[in-house]
Amino acid sequence: MQVCSRPLNCACFRSGWLLEPSITTTRSRRLRRTNVALATVFACFLSVTSLAKQTEEEKAAKAQAAQEKLLQVFISEPYLELSTGPGRGYPVFHVVPREQSVDVLHRRTDWFKVRDEAGVEGWARARDMRRTKLADGTPFVFNLGDRAGFTSHDWEIGIGGGDYGGANLIGFYGSRSLTDNMKVELSAAQFLGNASNGWKADLGLQHVLFPEWRFSPFLTLGTGFVSTSPRATIVLPEDREDQTAYVGAGARFYLTRRFFLRADYRWHTIFTSRDDNEELEEWKVVIACFF
């Protein structure tokens, strides 16, 4: 077979000869496809780079916004010492001079992590931070693990035991301060007696008469729920679940740091389904902490 590579209007084409394929045209098409593929890959790379850059900018903007919300206090003493960690065993490595400011990052018990104007971060004692001031000149006020914190705090939790109508009692409580004098208290306990066992829960108000005193008395009033289960089959089952109400009094005694003792007495009235209600006495001693 004879092959001609001349144009279509030559005599060979008119005579029925076959034309030789154009190598130039085939290479041109391959180059165009390669260029399109490279352009697509490059466009995808630019898109990913732009997205990554946008994500980094968003993170930086969020970090800046979070930094703007930090509490800023100013040093009113000659200097503020910064330690490498939140504890007495960590050394002091930096001091912030008077009139400069620090940003409060967060708190851990009696230590604050702060950052000064130069970007140095460290831990300052809560006692030293109480001598700083806000931008408007007012003192920086917060709860401390001392007598001041014992007088004014937000939460209390405690655990202890005592006696509930002749049965051994063990329980815990938690309270939320509405004011320095008034608190809302929720408690739960289990009692174990010779004739019956059970559990109870109480919700009430506590009024502290003199919260600034180391030994501070209080009054309490509330309602609750009690569930009783007989221990022996010879004991006739009485009301298993009843509503209660109580009044009481007690006292708190500050120990050290965030801990205090609490002793209280309550007079419970149990509203049974019978014609007469029952009355029980409760006393307990609790070790508690505030924060």
Report on this structure.
The protein has helices spanning 11-14, 23-68, 126-129, 147-151; strands at residues 3-4, 18-19, 71-74, 79-83, 92-97, 101-108, 111-116, 121-125, 155-164, 167-177, 182-192, 196-208, 215-230, 241-256, 259-271, 278-290. The protein has 291 residues and is α+β, with helices and mostly antiparallel strands. The chain folds into 3 domains: 3-66; 71-142, SH3 type barrels, CATH 2.30.30; 151-290, Porin (Beta Barrel), CATH 2.40.160. An 8-stranded antiparallel barrel has the order 9-10-11-12-13-14-15-16. It has a 4-stranded antiparallel sheet with strand order 3-6-7-8. Strand 12 (196-208) and strand 13 (215-230) form a beta hairpin. It starts with a strand and ends with a strand.
Which helices and strands, and how do they pair?
Layout: E1 3-4, H1 11-14, E2 18-19, H2 23-68, E3 71-74, E4 79-83, E5 92-97, E6 101-108, E7 111-116, E8 121-125, H3 126-129, H4 147-151, E9 155-164, E10 167-177, E11 182-192, E12 196-208, E13 215-230, E14 241-256, E15 259-271, E16 278-290
Parallel strand pairs: 1-2
Antiparallel strand pairs: 3-6, 4-5, 6-7, 7-8, 9-10, 9-16, 10-11, 11-12, 12-13, 13-14, 14-15, 15-16
